[in-house]
Structures are given as structure tokens and as C-alpha cells.
Amino acid sequence: MRCEVRADKPKNIPLWVGLVLVLTSLTRPLPARGEPSPIAGELAVFAAASLTEAFTAVGQRLEAAHLGLLVRFNFAGSQLLRTQLEHGARADLFAPADMTQMELAKTGGLVQEPTPVFARNRLVVIVPATNPAQVSTFRDLARPGLKLDLANAKAPVGKYSRQTISCAAADYGPDFAQRVLGNIVSEEDNVKQVVMKIQLGEADAGIVYLSDVTTKMHGQVLTVHIPEACNQPVTYPIALTKAASNRAAAEAFIAFVLSAEGQAILQQHGFISVH
Q: Is 63 a residue whose pLDDT tops 50?
């Protein structure tokens, strides 16, 4: 995908003012498909793996509206994306799956303010369609011999998963978390790898985002509810990087995902609107 913007703007205008101006412009319809646009060039977006389908659709919509715009995505675990930025990887936008990774990026001088939250998500347990371990409740994850697959603790979904498991100890007993974590047979770098392991039947259960249970997965996995009291709220912030070279396109991308049309696309892909 491609996306770039070369809209010249006085350098002394604060970023938040620029975002407001772009968002205001996007309250009107986007340019007709194929119509020339000042937003063009290549836009590099580093985004959490769970955003793959939704952001791909967003990028396609923006490319169709802005002739000459090329959006390139790098989807991976948020912690890995931040590390890549620390080592000099070029990107215009950073969209991790939690505020922790964004705060670390701020501390490291990798991103610019503001860092608005543009989407929310929830966790869900998935099991293979055949459900060989007969998992029917969240409590079953502590059953002896069950094979559990989680993202590692540095990945946002891995962190959220462990928080949820620890929270449930209040209802399921003080050793619940220890028993569940003792069932881990594999730890992945991102949520998509957890999904793949469960689809392939390489584990009995895994914890992923609700948005990862796409229509393509119907018939391949089943879902198991996580008690609402312990289902950790998931937030997705977004920010321009300090090294952003296509500021206009980056601001347009942020404005679009915050717009009504952008939020509708995210909802279609299982995310929770921030409006």
C-alpha cells in the first residue's frame, strides 16, 4: 500500500492545529476516486499486527481517494515495531496496541504529540473448531494437561492476557493464574501467530483480540467468553514519528481513522469505536 503527502504548511504551526485542520477537511467527502489530490507520495505506517485487515482497508480507501498516494504497512508485534524504530527504521506513523508501547516510544523520543486513541478492542479465548480439550469456560484454561498458547508478555496482547488471568484468581482461586500459566506450551511475538497456532490445532486454546476472529475463521475456531469483570480494555493510540517525512499524508491518515467513515471501517473489522 502507498501513502504520502506533500502539503506544505508553515513549520511553526503546532501539530495539533494541523490535525484539527485535516480532520475538519475530512468531515467533507473524500475526493472522488482518481481525482488529483495534494496528498500523495509514500506513507510508511508501523501498526500492531491486530490492525492488519482494518488498516489495509483504510489504506485502500485513502489510496483510491488520493491519486499518487502509496501506503506501505509494517504489521508486527507492537514491541517489535518500537524496537525497529529505536534502531532507525523509517516510518511516518506508529500505531501500537497499547499505551505502554506508545509511552515507551515517547520516552525514547520516537514519536510526536498528540497520541490520540482511535480504536478499542476486547479479548476472547479461541479453540480449534474440533475443540479437542473440550474447553467451554475461561476457568477450563487451568485444567491439568491443557495446551495453552499465548503471546509473550512483552507483546500487548500477551500483557493483557496475563492481566486477565491474574484478575480471575479472585473468583477461581489464588492458584488459578499459576495453573493457567503452567499450561503454556508456546509463546508468540504477536496475536496473529497465536491465531495461526490454534487454527493449525497446535494448542488447545489461546487468547486473542475479538477483532482477530474474522469471518474467514468461521469453521476453523470456536470462541469462549472471558468474564467481563476481568476482560482487560484494549486501546490503540496513533502518532506521527519524530522522523516522519510525509507529514501531510500522516496527518490525513490519523484524521481519517478518527472520522466517522474511518471508525465505521474499524467497526466492520471487529474494533470498538471511540466515538
A: yes
